[in-house]
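To: structure subgroup
Subject: Chain for Friday's discussion

All,

I'm putting the inputs and outputs inline so they're searchable in the archive.
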Amino acid sequence: MKKTLFFGALALAASATLAGCASTASDTGSRPPAESAAPQSQANAADEMFVTMMIPHHEQAIEMSDIVLAADGVDPAVAEIAAQVKAAQQPEIDKMLSWLEEWGVAYEPEGSASHSAHGGMDGMLSAEDLAALESASGDDVGRLFLEQMIAHHEGAVDMAKDALAEGNDPKVRALAEQVVADQTEEITAMQDLLAR
C-alpha cells in the first residue's frame, strides 16, 4: 500500500513538473520577448547620417532662397526657382525632424546649422559665400544664386545617392529618391537659365 502511494505521488509530481514545463514552453512560444514588443526602427547609421546632414543642408538652401526673394531686380525666373526650392525643402525638414524624434536621436539645430560645423559637407556654402550672395544685386544676385544653388543641389544629390546605397529605412530611401529626382531637374533648369 505504501509502495502504491509512493509511486502515485511520484507520478503526480512528475506530471505536475511536466505540465509546468509545457506551460512555460508554450508561454514563451506565444508571447514575444519584451524587447520585441515595441516596434523597432529600421533606420541604420547611414539613414541617421543622411537625415542629420540633410536638415542643415536644406536650411541653408532656404536661407539662400530668402536672400534672393528679398533682393530687388532679380530675374522673375530665378525668383521662381528660389520660391520652388523654399516650398519643397521646408516640409522635408519637418519630416526629417519628426523621424529623428521617432528614432530617439538628439538633434541640436544650433550646432548643425552652423556653417563652420558643416563646412566640409557637399555643396554647403561658407559664410563668405553667403555674404557675397547677400551683397550682390540685380542680375549679379541671380547669377550668383544659380551658380551656388547648382553646386548646393549637386552636393545634396551625392548625399542622397549615398543614402540609397547604404541606408535601410524605406521612408529615408523614398526621400533620397525624391531629392535625386527633384534636385536633378532643378539643376537642369538652373543651368538653362545661366546659359541664357
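Points worth raising on Friday:
The domain at 45-195 is CATH 1.20.1260.10 (Ferritin).
The radius of gyration is 29 Å.

D.
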